[in-house]
Design goal:
The chain has 420 residues and is α/β, with parallel strands linked by helices. Helix content is 28%, strand content 27%. Bound molecules: zinc ion (ZN).
């Protein structure tokens, strides 16, 4: 696909996926269009299609299996997460104050909070009715987190401190306006407000993804962490040719809050799916464990490009840049899954794809982040490499990457899935 069309497709995916639930719906739509069969997790599967997928809330796993399982197929997994930092509406959090409609929120994950003020925010997520049916909802430009004018506290430019409970209560409009947010959201999904049983609703950025730079060489968007990786993974998965190996696209939810959920990387979603796949392939328990032992996982998440104004926060010698190619992530403390064996696997895939790559390591005085890689490796016992695309402003409401890097990353991921 030409670069302009590929970037436009990524931007569309980012805009269509304000929350993990929307991302999974968009992935499902694209997989079905590509001929993959949707299977419901709660049904008995028996025989499986060679190309299929299943979802669990904000998580999805798609597979491509060989037409006939050989005695010793390999296993190639591309794993990423669907969630991003945001503000999440508390249940029963709507109230009035000084003539305003307000919404009480809790911080989801680790957003760079100052970037959330004075933005036009959408409310997006899912509403579950009393019968248990889930409804996706996305209401544009219905909220703001208002900053305090500089005249009312001149210390803000030198020592801004955000107190989440005091400062992040969102303003939804005037108390006199009709309908209130609860009624508006119920209307959007065709429900009466008292049919609503529960919700997972987030305040998210409303501004569409935009190309930036004199030749549009950069991409600014919300949720590059980690929908950029999910999009690269989907592109690679759809482009990878079938081999004797089983290929998986795994998208977990809740990475930003620790992954310890039924749809997170520490949960059993992938483990159970792998068991169901190998059972359909006629594997014994022994053969199943041998299969996992032969497996490889590429854990994909964004990483930090060197900040031009704050190079002191980075390792002094190893500094990824925007546009320099995909980035291998390494940590002696195993905050990433990468070790020598998986570095070599990654290097083989980069060479096969003809892509130059970079390396990220932490400055020893800066703890840095982590990824779902070690969690998935611990849960499944599969050798894992962590890699991704460099961004600036990770966890800002609007992150920045170079448009060339996602395509290069997808090319390496395709080679990895094909076992090259
Ligand atoms: Zn991430």
């Amino acid at each position: 696909m030409p670069e302009a069309a590929r970037t436009a497709d990524l931007m569309h995916f980012l805009d269509a996926s304000p929350t993990s639930y929307h991302a999974v719906a968009e992935l499902a739509r694209r997989l079905e269009a590509a001929g993959f069969t949707a299977l419901v997790g709660g049904e008995v599967w028996g025989q499986l299609p060679n190309q299929g997928f299943t979802t669990r809330d904000g998580a999805l796993i798609a597979w491509r299996t060989p037409a006939v399982w050989s005695r010793q197929p390999g296993l190639r997994i591309f794993a990423a997460h669907s969630d991003s930092p945001a503000l999440k509406l508390k249940p029963h959090g709507l109230h009035e104050r000084f003539g305003y409609q307000m919404a009480n929120v809790e911080v989801y994950g680790g957003p760079l909070l100052p970037t959330w003020f004075d933005r036009d925010l959408s409310v997006a997520g899912r509403i579950v009715d009393l019968a248990g049916t889930s409804h996706l909802v996305h209401a544009n430009a219905v909220a703001r987190v208002p900053s305090l004018a500089i005249h009312l506290d001149r210390s803000q430019n030198s020592e801004l401190r955000v107190e989440a409970q005091r400062d992040l209560v969102a303003l939804l409009g005037l108390a006199s306006s009709e309908p209130d947010l609860a009624t508006h959201l119920a209307d959007l999904v065709g429900l009466d407000p008292n049919q609503v049983g529960g919700h997972d609703l987030f305040l998210v950025a409303d501004q569409p993804a935009t190309r930036v730079g004199t030749s549009g060489e950069l991409l600014a968007s919300a949720r590059l962490d980690n929908l950029l990786s999910v999009h690269s993974g989907l592109s690679a998965f759809l482009a990878a040719e079938a081999t004797d190996d089983v290929q998986l696209l795994v998208v977990h939810d809740h990475e930003e809050v620790g992954s310890h959920t039924a749809s997170g990387a520490s949960g059993p979603f992938a483990e159970h799916l792998l068991r169901r796949l190998s059972q359909a392939g006629g594997f014994s328990q022994d053969a199943h464990h041998a299969w996992l032992d032969r497996g490889w996982c590429l854990s994909a998440d964004v990483t930090h490009a060197v900040h031009p104004n704050r190079p002191d926060r980075h390792d002094p010698t190893t500094r990824p840049v925007l546009g320099g190619g995909p980035v291998l992530k390494w940590s002696a403390a195993m905050r990433y899954g990468t070790d020598a064996t998986t570095m070599a696997c990654w290097a083989r895939a980069c060479r096969a794809a003809g892509v130059e790559h970079q390396v990220f390591v932490n400055n020893n005085s800066v703890p840095g982040g982590a990824s779902l890689g070690p969690l998935a490796a611990t849960r499944l016992g599969i050798r894992t490499v962590d890699a991704g695309v460099a961004v600036l402003g990770m966890h800002s409401i609007r992150e920045l990457c170079a448009v060339a890097d996602p395509a290069a990353f997808a090319a390496v991921a395709r080679a990895f899935l094909a076992g090259e």
